[in-house]
Amino acid sequence: MSSYSIGQAARLLGVSGETVRRWADSGRLAMGRDGSGNRVIDGAGLAEFAARRARDAGQGQDGPSHTSARNAFTGIVTAVRTDDVVAQVEIQSGPHRVVSMVTREAVEELGLEVGVTVTARVKSTSVHVDRA
After folding, report:
1. 17-25 vs 6-13: helix axis angle to the nearest 10?
2. Cα distances (Å, whole numbers) of residue 22 to 51, 60, 63
3. Which of 13, 87, 91, 109 has the fewest other C-beta atoms within 10 Å?
4. Which keywords annotate this record (predicted)?
């Protein structure tokens, strides 16, 4: 069974190690000790926590979001490049860089500019998964 260090869990969840420690200390995230006494998180427990956290993030003030796109990346706009018709919007969501091509009109209507918080929703017919 896989287990993760605090740092590894933090990278996977897109938060700081201190946040993972606080979640463990408050009982939100189960953590144990390995044979050397180091704090570790069980892989199955971490997966369940990450899925629950993602579900909870999809709940707005008015209840669940109403979209068929399940892959949502909330982040900050780091770059916007526009021409006459299209625009390229770059978003940093935790450790993930998401790049979207949208119309210039959409950028203007949404008020997209560097520093704005946005959610990129991804829906794809083909997803590739690699394991390190």
Report:
1. 110
2. 18, 24, 27
3. 109
4. Molybdenum
CATH classification number, 3-58, choose in 3.20.190.10, 3.40.50.980, 3.10.105.10, 1.10.1660.10: 1.10.1660.10
Collapsing DSSP to helix, strand or coil, 77 comes out as strand
- With residue 56 as reference, give the H or E element that holds it: helix 43-57
CA distances to 74, 76, 103 from 83, in Å: 25, 21, 9
- Total-model pTM: 0.52
- Residue 61 sits at φ, ψ, to 5 deg, of -60, -30
